[in-house]
């Protein structure tokens, strides 16, 4: 636990971090990858290019400084970060490298304002924070190893099946190369996938939601082909170059976006590729729960709607499950499709029509704009925040 003097000094620097935090974290990442290029194997370098990771880290550092005297308010953020770190196999040695370069970045940006007293306080505070994360992550590693099919770090898996789910989403099924059992996981969790792409200097690692069910004997991820400026490096490599028989390295399943035990109805609301963790939850509910379940699948149209037939098949087998589709740009064939029930955007009236009560647990995932809209809609219906659960793809940000 940091000394009272350290707590006071670090807390007093919070206003400075609010102004200079993003610049500090940009310099930090420059120093880190310059001094330790091997860490590019772990970090998502696309987020570095876009600046989203620097912004996310700046917000996290500011939050720590502002709440160093009451870290309990950061417990949810700490849990999220430790889960992400465990998926990436972060080691105690990496914390030392990060700390050294973060302190150097603070000194470089703040210059004379970063007095020896301030630097000493931040060194102590960072050491305490690193110790907290190392301890929590070690427990996650031990828990993962103790489970059936468990392991620590990364393990080699072979692709046993590759299947198109829509015009832009493809599923990849994996089994351990050594023939052991797949690691246990919960619906909504993700795995880190590391691939070596020819002609690129370092490994590329990305987290992908597990879209399958724990009852299966394979791990399944379902990947959207990301196009734009630039195209998604890893997603396009997976789509175009990896096939049955190829191997990749996977981390341990991780993530806190999982179902909580309840007797209330459960509503899963997916936007686009946000369907992937929710499909896993839906399959878990099919096998292990009797709650009333509504699976809402929002997409542009049926050509990009993944798991349409599969989700409907499960609903036909279990009366407590129902699924609806909403297309904001439906094809002419979608209008008469028996499965297609709504065109346009999701509204609270649609939920009222389909649910016995709005007093439910809501899980939603998709693009940030979509999630903001869903959250605002549910809040306008006075759904308690404790019953709203959501997941970001990429660095976390607030849903205002």
UniProtKB/TrEMBL annotation:
Its cofactor is heme b. Transmembrane segments: none annotated. Its EC number is 1.14.12.17. The keyword NAD applies. Residues 1-138 form the Globin domain. InterPro entries: Cbr1-like_FAD-bd_dom (IPR008333), FAD-bd_FR_type (IPR017927), FNR_nucleotide-bd (IPR039261), Globin (IPR000971), Globin-like_sf (IPR009050), Globin/Proto (IPR012292), OxRdtase_FAD/NAD-bd (IPR001433), Riboflavin_synthase-like_b-brl (IPR017938). Residues 152-260 form the FAD-binding FR-type domain. GO terms for molecular function: nitric oxide dioxygenase NAD(P)H activity. It catalyses: 2 nitric oxide + NADPH + 2 O2 = 2 nitrate + NADP(+) + H(+); 2 nitric oxide + NADH + 2 O2 = 2 nitrate + NAD(+) + H(+). It holds the Pfam family Globin. Keywords: Heme, Iron, Metal-binding, NAD, NADP, Oxidoreductase, Oxygen transport, Transport. In the C-terminal section; belongs to the flavoprotein pyridine nucleotide cytochrome reductase family. This is nitric oxide dioxygenase. The lineage of its organism: Bacteria, Pseudomonadati, Bacteroidota, Cytophagia, Cytophagales.
């Amino acid at each position: 636990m940091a000394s009272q003097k350290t707590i006071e000094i670090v807390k007093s620097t919070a206003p400075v971090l609010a102004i200079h935090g993003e610049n500090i974290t940009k310099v930090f990442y420059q120093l880190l990858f310059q001094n330790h290029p091997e860490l590019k194997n772990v970090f998502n370098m696309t987020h570095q290019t876009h600046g989203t990771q620097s912004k996310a880290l700046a917000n996290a550092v500011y939050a720590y400084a502002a709440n160093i005297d009451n870290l309990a308010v950061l417990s949810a953020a700490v849990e999220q970060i430790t889960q992400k770190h465990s998926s990436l196999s972060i080691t105690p040695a990496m914390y030392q490298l990060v700390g050294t370069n973060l302190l150097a970045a603070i000194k470089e940006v703040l210059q004379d304002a970063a007095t020896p007293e301030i630097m000493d306080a931040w060194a102590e505070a960072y050491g305490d924070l690193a110790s907290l994360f190392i301890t929590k992550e070690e427990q996650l590693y031990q828990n993962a190893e103790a489970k059936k099919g468990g392991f620590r770090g990364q393990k080699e898996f072979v692709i046993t099946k590759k299947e198109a789910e829509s015009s832009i989403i493809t599923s990849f099924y994996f089994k351990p190369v050594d023939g052991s059992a797949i690691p246990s996981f919960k619906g909504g969790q993700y795995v880190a996938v590391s691939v070596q792409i020819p002609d690129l200097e370092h490994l590329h690692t990305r987290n992908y939601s597990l879209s399958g069910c724990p009852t299966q004997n394979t791990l399944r991820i379902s990947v959207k082909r990301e196009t734009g400026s630039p195209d998604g490096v890893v997603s396009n490599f997976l789509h175009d170059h990896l096939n049955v028989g190829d191997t990749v390295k996977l981390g341990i399943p991780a993530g806190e976006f999982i179902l909580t035990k309840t007797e209330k109805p459960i509503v899963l609301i997916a936007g686009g590729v946000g369907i992937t963790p929710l499909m896993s939850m839906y399959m878990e509910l099919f096998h292990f729960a009797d709650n009333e379940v509504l699976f809402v699948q929002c997409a542009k149209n049926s050509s990009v709607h993944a798991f349409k037939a599969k989700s409907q098949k499960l609903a036909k087998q279990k009366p407590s499950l129902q699924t609806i589709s909403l297309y904001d740009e439906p094809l002419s064939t979608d209008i008469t499709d028996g499965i297609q029930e709504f065109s346009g955007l999701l509204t609270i009236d649609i939920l009222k029509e389909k649910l016995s009560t709005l007093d439910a647990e809501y899980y939603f995932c998709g693009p940030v704009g979509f999630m903001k809209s869903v959250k605002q809609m549910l809040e306008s219906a006075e759904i308690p925040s404790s019953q709203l659960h959501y997941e970001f793809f990429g660095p976390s940000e607030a849903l205002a």
